[in-house]
Design brief:
This protein is 39% helix and 25% strand. By secondary structure, it is of the alpha+beta class. It has one domain: Chloramphenicol Acetyltransferase (2-Layer Sandwich), CATH 3.30.559. α3 crosses α8. The longest helix has 17 residues. The N and C termini lie far apart (63 Å). This is 2-oxo acid dehydrogenase subunit E2. Keywords: Acyltransferase, Transferase. Its cofactor is (R)-lipoate. Pfam families: 2-oxoacid_dh.
């Protein structure tokens, strides 16, 4: 047996810095299942109008509206000896992406600002733009590329220093994070996060569900939430997650139809 030992590739250094910061969080994990019938129908309707809206965009839209109802979660707790809470006014969401860099798959992220003021179509347009950016040349990845070029010890020091500034934190970490593994048959997973709340979206599965006294087949989607117990407590976190579930399941197409109406008049 041969074991190859080598230094960690530079393209993975930013992930190490992120995980070290995420370990400061006091993470608690919640999960639920969402009846995705309305979501699937809405996605199909958009597609019939030649617009492909990803499930990630739907959740960015819904979570930002839920934060309007539960503004207490739009915060971050930082510091050990003298902890402080940063309360944010803007509702910004961080979305993670599977990115190819120098022949290696890495995770990168970008923050979409003022999500609660944007339509589904606009959110999807911004995601499409981010997906089309090259890691090697894209302006959005300049900071990460610089961080990767530094020795690990120096990159760690700079990352910690930068993350002590509330403005920089909001610009790079956002109010919440959404990550998805729904492109493969993955059920529930619980991501590590620096955000107060982070949502993991799994794959939709057709499952038997009891509705009153009948068993029916419905498209069910697992949704997990990691939250920082330093910032919010379990009861509030549970109410927040349940509200997101309700928005997706019982919206009755009102929000989606408003987006479709706006699209039709463009």
């Amino acid at each position: 047996m041969t074991i190859k030992v080598e230094p960690l590739p530079p393209v993975r250094r930013h992930t190490v810095h992120f995980l070290e910061k995420a370990n400061e969080s006091q993470a608690i994990y919640l999960s639920t299942e969402i009846d995705a019938s309305t979501l699937v129908d809405a996605k199909t309707t958009f597609k019939q109008r030649s617009e492909n809206i990803s499930y990630v965009s739907f959740f960015l839209y819904a979570i930002s509206r839920a934060i309007e109802v539960y503004p207490e979660v739009n915060c971050s707790v930082q510091g050990k000896r003298h902890p402080k809470r940063w309360q944010f006014s803007s509702i910004d969401g961080k979305v993670t992406m599977d990115t190819l860099a120098k022949g290696e798959r890495i995770v990168t992220s970008n923050v979409i600002q003022a999500l609660n003021k944007k339509s589904l179509s606009v959110i999807q347009e911004e995601i499409n733009e981010l997906k089309g950016v090259s890691f090697e040349t894209g302006e959005q990845f300049t900071a990460i590329r610089k961080l990767q070029q530094l020795p690990t010890w120096l990159g760690r020091k700079i990352f910690k220093k930068v993350m002590k500034k509330p403005e920089t934190w909001q610009q790079t970490q956002g109010s919440f994070t959404v990550t998805s593994l729904g492109h493969v048959p993955i059920n529930t997973f619980f991501p590590m996060t620096t955000s107060t709340t982070c949502f993991g979206i799994g794959a939709i599965r057709r499952c038997p569900v009891v509705v009153e006294d009948d068993i029916v087949i419905k498209p069910m989607m697992p949704l997990s939430m990691t939250f920082d117990h330093r910032a919010i407590d379990g009861a509030l976190a549970a109410d927040f997650l349940h509200h997101i579930k309700t928005l997706i399941e019982e919206w009755e197409g009102e929000a989606w139809q408003e987006d479709l109406k706006n699209q039709a008049t463009m």
